[in-house]
Amino acid sequence: MSFDLFGVVTVRMYAILIVTGMVLAVLYMRSQEKRLGLAKDTALDMALWAIPAGIIGARLYYVAFTWDQYAPDPLSILKIWNGGLAIYGGIIGGFLGLLFLSRVKKLPLLKLLDMAAPAVILGQAIGRWGNFFNGEAYGRLITDPRWCFFPYGVQVDGKWYQATFFYESVWDLLGFLILHLARKKMRADGDLLFLYFVFYGLGRAFIEGLRSDSLWWGPFRVSQVLSLALAAAGLAVLAVRERKAR
């Protein structure tokens, strides 16, 4: 879905929602700078490094697992407004951007990541609606007419599919609320990041199993395997930290 802006530029709803998610994520991080003892405008510095790196990472990750689609026309890789951004690639790219920033400005990396975790999942909750307007990231075909309604299903090309984009959006919004409420109760830098790994990883692993457009690596859904690995790693670290604290 798109519309003309002042009759000059065509703007896609997908892009508007992605940008909206980014803006709200940055505003949220700015509201947390003082609490974490970080300098003013640290959030803007984070955005300047993490967002471009995240977009590049999200695109390269997606293209790497769907190369056959882009091989005939490699220049189409640049057309990100048509969709094709993988969130895990964005997370990896954003992490590398923040790692570079922390090294250059001598900032505590785990503290930056703690500030970013709730902001990222908030951005994900909003950005998922871009999949609705692009007609992508949906689940299995619904054959029972009783379930052909939104929000359980979404209509694509005249057929009804499970609205997995909506399921994840709701899960991410719940995750944001949990991380936001838990932020002051975390005992050590990095705890909020690992809580994000656990919450998002478990939800995404389940929802990914419902999707019909997963990225595959042999017989495995890439995002499902990565989600379970992140959830397990986050849970292990939090468990070890809790034991040491006791």
Q: Name the shape in a single word.
A: globular
Number of strands: 6
Strand order of the largest sheet: 1-2
N-to-C CA distance: 54 Å
Strand content range: 5-15%
The residue-averaged pLDDT reads 92
- Total domains: 1
Element-by-element helix/strand order: EEHHHHHEEHHEEH
User: What characterizes the major β-sheet?
Assistant: 2 strands, antiparallel
User: What radius of gyration results from the CA coordinates?
Assistant: 19 Å
**Count of helical stretches:** 8
**Coarse structural class:** mainly alpha
Low-confidence spans: pLDDT under 50, at least 5 residues? none
* DSSP helix fraction: 55-70%
What can you tell me about this protein's structure?
This protein has 246 residues and is mainly alpha-helical. The chain has one domain (2-245). The chain is 63% helix and 8% strand. The chain has helices at 13-32, 42-65, 67-70, 87-105, 109-134, 164-182, 191-208, 222-245, and strands at 2-5, 9-12, 153-156, 159-162, 216-217, 220-221. It has a two-stranded antiparallel ribbon. Strands 3-4 form a two-stranded antiparallel ribbon. The protein has a two-stranded antiparallel ribbon with strand order 5-6. The protein is globular. It starts with a strand and ends with a helix. The model has no long low-confidence stretch (mean pLDDT 92).
